Amino acid sequence: MGVARRGAGAVIERLRTGVPGFDELIAGGIPRGFMVAVVGEPGTGKTVFAIHFAWEGVREGDKVIYVTTEESRDSIVKQAAMFGMDFASAIDSGRMIIIDALMRGRGDEWSLEELSVESMVEKVIEAKRRLGYGRARLIIDSMSAFWLDKPAMARKYSYTAKRLLYRWDFTTLAISQYAITTSEAFGWGLEHVADGIIRFRRVIRGGRLRRLVLVEKMRQTPHDLRVHEVDIRDGEGMRILGPLEERAEDYALPERVKRRLARASEHYWGDEG
Ligand SMILES: Nc1ncnc2c1ncn2[C@@H]1O[C@H](COP(=O)(O)OP(=O)(O)OP(=O)(O)O)[C@@H](O)[C@H]1O
Ligand SMILES: [Mg+2]
Prior knowledge:
Strand order of the largest sheet: 5-4-6-7-3-8-9-10-11
CATH superfamily: P-loop containing nucleotide triphosphate hydrolases
Number of strands: 11
Oligomer: single chain
Radius of gyration: 19 Å
Shape: globular
Number of domains: 1
CATH topology: Rossmann fold
Structural class: alpha/beta
Bound molecules: adenosine-5'-triphosphate, magnesium ion
Largest sheet: 9 strands, mixed
């Protein structure tokens, strides 16, 4: 009575990502209608993350559209199948469309003839019309493919895509790749336009590749501010292991080694403090 409901859970509908341990970092999920940038170096888990998001959509009865520019449609379907996610039957039953922008000119209804933002958006809207009304998830994997030869266009293209897609009830993951040597130069446009930024990284620790994730931005969300370790497992897919600073195994290490690891991780995340 007279008390306004407050806080992140009160007024916002959130879409679960389907990655165990991740939704807790963002107050339950991605706010409906958001365009979230998923950024990171090759092999850090962006596509696997997106595959989970797509599959969670299928499970929840959302319409799912997956634009793939880096891998063929078959490759995405196979990757998903390894984690027990049956994209093939989701496609057959009209719950999902994968728009293939890699295998161009195959003449297939859902391949992109030309790698331009406008033709991609047009195709996505056509796909949404086909799938029908209702809450929808869109994955653009990757968005950076559209400005590879003209990085200065990143912001304009991102803005165009966001504006054109706005009224189609999409919650969107826009994936952006970084060339290691140009990590500062690519994708900034997207990150400003995006409502959220999820950044994946990789580090070598203890002679082994580790994957990390950080939610750098999520509008209207009291998100976790810590770096978390990520695991990708055959047959299961991605899950969040826990925050870097609280990993039990970190505490088992000698102080000297822990300090060195901490310095290394600060270095990787550009923390000068
Ligand atoms: N079945 C599997 N079991 C275990 N790990 C797997 C499996 N399939 C893929 N991976 C891991 O996931 C990694 C690929 O991750 P992903 O495709 O999401 O990277 P990405 O960030 O999208 O990279 P890129 O920018 O090159 O597209 C592989 O290098 C491998 O380490
Ligand atoms: Mg990928």
